[in-house]
C-alpha cells in the first residue's frame, strides 16, 4: 500500500489498519493484547486496570470476522471524496474524560466517519450536530470535529458506543453486539464518577439498561421506555444514582427530516449537564 500523509499532521502511514503507526490518539503498541473471540475479550477486558489500557485493547480487537472484513474493506475502497486520505479502519475506542460525570452513548462508528478518522462522532454530519451542541453547553472545547488531531477535548464527558466497529448497513448482528457488550460493561463499570447518561436512540437506551442489569445495578421494572426526552434512574451497586436521558440519534435521517432539531438536541444536552452536577 502506498504511504499517504495524514491530512492534519502530515505523518505518513503505510497501512491504515495496522496499530502503532503514530496515528493521533492511537494508544496501542505491539504489546497490546489482541482479542480474537468473545472469551479473549472477557479475559483482556478484565485485566485492563486503566482506561488507556481498555481503549488500546478495544482498538485492536479482532473478535468479529464480519466486522473486521467490513471496516477494513471500507478503509481500502474509501469514499471518493476521501480517496487520498488514510482511513483508521479499526475498532474505534471511546473518547473523552475517563473521570467524567456525563456520558453520551451512541451505536457504532460510521463507515466513512469514525472508521475513517479514528475518533467517535468525528468526520461526519452526526458529529457536527453532536459536538456543536456539546460546545454550546461548555462541554466540548470546539464546535467542529474534523479528525483525531484537531485538538478537540471534552470536559467531564465521555462518548461510548455499545459497538466499536463500523457494521454493514449500520446494523451489528446479535452475536456482535453480545461480544462488544463485554467491552461496554467494563467501560461503564470503570466510569465510577458517572452520574448522567444521554442515550442516542433506542439501541443505546436498551444497551445501557442491559449493561446496568448485567453489572448488578438496579433498573426499574418494567423497563423504562425510550423516547426523546425520556428519563429514568438506575442505581449502581454502591448506591449511586445514574440518570438516563433519551435523545433521538443525531443521524442524517433524523436531522434532515426535522425529527431532531437543534433546539431539541440542545435541551437534552442541557438536561444531561444539569443532572450530572446535582
TrEMBL record:
Keywords: 4Fe-4S, DNA damage, DNA repair, Glycosidase, Hydrolase, Iron, Iron-sulfur, Metal-binding. GO terms for biological process: base-excision repair. Residues 93-269 form the Uracil-DNA glycosylase-like domain. GO terms for molecular function: 4 iron, 4 sulfur cluster binding; DNA-deoxyinosine glycosylase activity; metal ion binding; uracil DNA N-glycosylase activity. It holds the Pfam family UDG. SUPFAM superfamilies: Uracil-DNA glycosylase-like. InterPro entries: UDG_Type-4/5, UdgB-like, Uracil-DNA_glycosylase-like, Uracil-DNA_glycosylase-like_sf. Residues 1-27 are annotated as: Disordered. The keyword DNA damage applies. Belongs to the uracil-DNA glycosylase (UDG) superfamily. Type 5 (UDGb) family. This is Type-5 uracil-DNA glycosylase. It comes from Cutibacterium avidum ATCC 25577. The lineage of its organism: Bacteria, Bacillati, Actinomycetota, Actinomycetes, Propionibacteriales.
Amino acid at each position: 500500500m502506498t504511504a499517504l500523509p495524514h491530512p492534519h499532521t502530515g505523518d505518513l502511514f503505510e497501512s491504515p489498519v495496522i496499530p502503532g503507526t503514530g496515528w493521533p490518539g492511537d494508544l496501542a503498541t505491539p504489546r497490546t493484547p489482541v482479542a480474537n473471540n468473545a472469551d479473549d475479550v472477557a479475559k483482556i477486558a478484565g485485566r485492563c486496570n486503566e482506561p488507556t489500557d481498555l481503549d488500546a485493547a478495544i482498538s485492536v480487537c479482532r473478535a468479529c470476522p464480519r466486522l473486521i472484513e467490513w471496516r477494513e474493506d471500507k478503509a481500502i475502497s474509501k469514499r471518493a471524496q476521501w480517496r487520498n486520505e488514510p482511513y483508521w479502519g479499526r475498532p474505534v475506542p471511546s473518547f473523552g474524560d475517563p473521570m467524567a460525570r456525563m456520558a453520551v452513548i451512541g451505536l457504532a462508528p460510521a463507515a466513512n466517519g469514525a472508521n475513517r478518522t479514528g475518533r467517535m462522532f468525528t468526520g461526519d454530519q452526526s458529529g457536527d450536530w453532536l459536538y456543536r451542541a456539546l460546545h454550546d453547553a461548555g462541554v466540548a472545547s470546539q464546535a467542529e470535529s474534523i479528525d483525531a488531531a484537531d485538538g478537540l477535548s471534552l470536559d467531564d464527558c465521555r462518548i461510548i458506543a455499545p459497538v466499536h466497529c463500523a457494521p454493514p448497513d449500520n446494523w451489528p448482528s446479535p452475536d456482535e453486539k453480545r461480544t462488544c457488550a463485554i467491552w461496554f460493561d467494563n467501560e461503564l463499570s470503570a466510569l465510577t464518577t458517572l452520574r448522567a447518561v444521554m442515550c442516542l436512540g433506542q439501541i443505546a437506551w436498551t444497551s445501557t439498561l442491559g449493561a446496568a442489569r448485567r453489572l448488578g445495578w438496579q433498573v426499574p421494572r418494567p423497563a423504562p421506555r425510550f423516547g426523546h426526552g425520556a428519563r429514568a434512574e438506575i442505581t449502581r451497586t454502591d448506591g449511586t444514582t445514574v440518570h438516563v436521558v433519551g435523545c433521538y440519534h443525531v443521524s442524517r435521517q433524523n436531522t434532515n427530516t426535522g425529527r431532531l432539531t437543534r433546539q431539541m438536541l440542545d435541551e437534552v444536552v442541557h438536561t444531561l449537564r444539569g443532572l450530572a452536577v446535582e
